[in-house]
Model the fold of this input.
Amino acid sequence: MSEKSKNITVNIYGQDYSLKTSADEKYINKIADFVKLKMKEIEDTGLDANSQQLKIAVLSAMNIADELFQSLNKNSNIISTIQTKGNSFIEYIDDRIKEIESESKE
Done:
């Protein structure tokens, strides 16, 4: 059974956002803090937080998306490596079993 949704409000750059979610409030606040941090990093490049909030938000979203894609790519490479090594290991075991079986027939 899924958890009940609840309303959680977060404030990012002076704007309140009411979210309906079944996620833990601490988790939602952690995400909001991460977004605030990314927006602050963009603001620190010299953009004015009062007049360029949309630009700050979009550039922050681009940076977060870049981090996501890099992480997904890294995970994909790790999974591919594990699969390759796993297949090699299985082939080795199969070959050894065949060797043992042929030795026992002799």
User: Anything to note?
Assistant: The chain is about 70% helix and 15% strand. The longest strand covers residues 6-12. The chain has a mean pLDDT of 92.
